[in-house]
Amino acid sequence: MYKIMIAEDEDQIRIGLKKTIEEVIGGFKVVAEAANGKDALDQLHKTSPDILITDIRMPEMNGIETIRRVRDNFPSLYIIIVSGYGDFEYAKMAIKYQVAEYLLKPVNRVELAEVLQSIKRNLDAGNMSSNEHELTDEMKEGRHAIRKVKDIVMQNMAEDISLQRVAAQVNLTPHYLSVLFKTVSGQNYSDFVTDSRMIKAKQLLKETNLKIHEIANMTGYVSAKHFMNVFKQRVGTTPSDYRNHGS
Fold first, then answer.
1. Residue ranges of the domains in the chain?
2. Do 135-239 and 2-108 fall under one CATH topology?
């Protein structure tokens, strides 16, 4: 599981980001939080996260200066900016310091999920490349199987993607796949499926005029009521409210 640090001076936004990352998106752990740039630098040295999510305007040391110093000390760290300002100068700064993404507040959960999943794929690829010579054949096959499983889930969201069905497609027993998936990805298979369905549902709610029951069917839920219950539990609001008001 990859580690994230959040630098944001507004408590409500910082808490909301952490909840979204850990409870909605999944697959990541927020290991440190900071309310200003100075504290952020101190925490970075102590926790060594893989990803930094930072605001631009913070007390004591602003985000721009923080990012400049971060790049000097942590050249490979992935940085995501969240800001209420779509200023051109900030955009130029983001390019200069190789920021992974610049997200405007209020942060759209679907966009954040897509950015984090993209970074995760890059981190996975980097780890596999650097550690490939240390892996046994069995471990290599296991990682390959999990990549295939994730592809099956993403490409067949509306179909039966139960653990039993998918295990049969990759020639593994359900129990072994369950253990392997948790070991390799740090997440339960069922949680991955639900999170993937919620991300897809949020995208459809925002980008289409499809009815709720149609989105439910497209994301693998036979019952619209069940879909709405899961959505409310995972996202914290109803599908209709999410469509009308956003995250």
1. 2-108, 135-239
2. no
Tokens representing residue 125 in the block: 């690829």
d(C-alpha 33, C-alpha 19), whole Å: 12
pLDDT value at position 32?
95
Q: Which residues contact 136 (CB under 8 A, 6 or more apart)?
A: none
pLDDT of residue 92: 67
CATH number of 135-239: 1.10.10.60
On whether the CB atoms of residues 128 and 143 are closer than 8 A, the answer is yes
Nearest of 121, 109, 147 to residue 51 by alpha carbon: 121
The residues, any chain, with a CB within 8 Å of residue 4's CB and separated by 6 or more, are: 21, 28, 29, 30, 31, 49, 50, 51, 52, 53
Q: Which helix (H) or strand (E) holds 69?
A: helix 63-73
Q: Measuring CA to CA, which residue among 156, 240, 157, 158 is closest to residue 205?
A: 240
The Cα 115–Cα 5 span in angstroms is: 15
Both tokens of 20, joined, read 């979204």
pLDDT of res. 117: 87
**Residues 33 and 18 sit within 8 Å (Cβ to Cβ):** yes
Q: Classify domain 2-108 by CATH number.
A: 3.40.50.2300
Residues of the chain with pLDDT under 50: 132, 135
